Amino acid sequence: MDISSNGASGVSAVRTSEDNANWNYGKISYWQSFLGQQQQSNEQELATKMLQIQSKRFYLDVKQNRRGKFIKVAEIGADGRRSQIFLALSTAADFRDHLGTFSEFYSQLGPPNSDTIPEDGKLKSEMMIKDNRRYYLDLKENARGRFLRVSQTITRGGPRSQVAIPAQGMIEFRDNLTDLLDEFGTDDGGFKGDLPDGRHMRVDNKNFYFDVGQNNRGIYMRISEVKGNFRTAITVPEKSWSRFRDYFRDYCEKMAECNEKSTTATSVPAESVSPQ
Q1: pTM attached to this predicted model
Q2: Three-state DSSP class for 273?
Q3: Pairing of strands 2-6, 11-15
Q4: How far out from the chain centre does Cα 48 lie?
Q5: What is the pLDDT of residue 102?
C-alpha cells in the first residue's frame, strides 16, 4: 500500500496494490498507444509528466515534429476513456497564466451551493485563439463538484476535443506545465510569418471557403463547400498545393481545348446548295 500526499492540493491518496496494478496497466496502455502514434507521425517525444488528480490521470507530453514543438495534454478517466488536446508552446504559456487566474478565483469561492449555481454551470470563462484554433476555458460546477473544462475547436468546423481538470488540481497542473515551459521555452518553431487571409466564392447556390491554417503538423488549406445546412470540407497540406495547382491547371487547359473544338464544330456553316 502506498500513501502519498499532494502538497499543491493538500490531498492525501491511499493506493492499494490493486490500484498500483491498474495504474501500471493504464500507463502501459498509454505508452503503447503513444508509440503507435509516434511511428505513424514521425514525432519525437522530448519529455513527459504524469499527474494523478482525484480519479483521473493526466499526461503532459512535449513533442516535436518537422514543424516545431508542442504539448499534448491527455486525460484518462477512471473508466479508461481517453481525451486529448494539443497546445503550441506559446498557447501553453497563455494557458499556464489562465490556470493561475482560475485558481485564484476558485480559492475565493465559498462552499458549493446548488441554489447559486448558474443554469449552464459556468462560474468563470475565458477564450484563447491560436491560428485557426480556439480554446474555451470554463470553470464549471455540477453535482460531482467543480472542474475546469478546456475545449479545443477548429475554425469553420472540425472536431471538438476537450479535457476536464478537477478544480483542486489546477495549481498542480499549472506547476507541472511551468516546469516543461521553463525547460523548453515558449517558441513554437515552424512558420513565423503571417498566413494568407481566407477567401470566399459563390457558385450558383453553393459557397466555397478557402482558409489557410497551421497546426502541429504544419500549414494546410481547408476548402469548405456550404449549401444550405450541408457542409463538407477537405484539408490539403501545404506540401501538396503545387500538385493540386498543376492538376487544376491541366484540367482547365483540357476543358478549354474541348470547348474550343466544340465551338468550332458547331460554327462550321452548312454547304450552300445551288438551285437547278
Answers
A1: 0.57
A2: coil
A3: antiparallel
A4: 19
A5: 96
**Element at 6 (helix H, strand E):** strand 2-6
As a whole number of angstroms, the distance between CA 21 and CA 5 comes to 19
In terms of Cβ atoms closer than 10 Å to its own Cβ (0-12, 13-18, 19+), residue 103 is buried
Close Cβ partners of 139 (under 8 Å, ≥ 6 residues apart): 102, 105, 106, 122, 123, 124, 125, 146, 147, 148, 167
**pLDDT tens by residue, 36-89:** 554 445 788 999 999 999 999 999 999 987 777 899 999 999 899 999 999 999
List of domains in the chain: 44-110+117-184 (3.30.2450.30), 199-259 (3.10.450.700)
Q: Which distant-in-sequence residues (6+ apart) come within 8 Å of 41 by Cβ? A: 65, 217
Element (H, E) at 178: helix 170-184
At residue 158, does pLDDT exceed 80? no
**133 in Cβ contact with 18 (< 8 Å):** no
DSSP state of 156: S
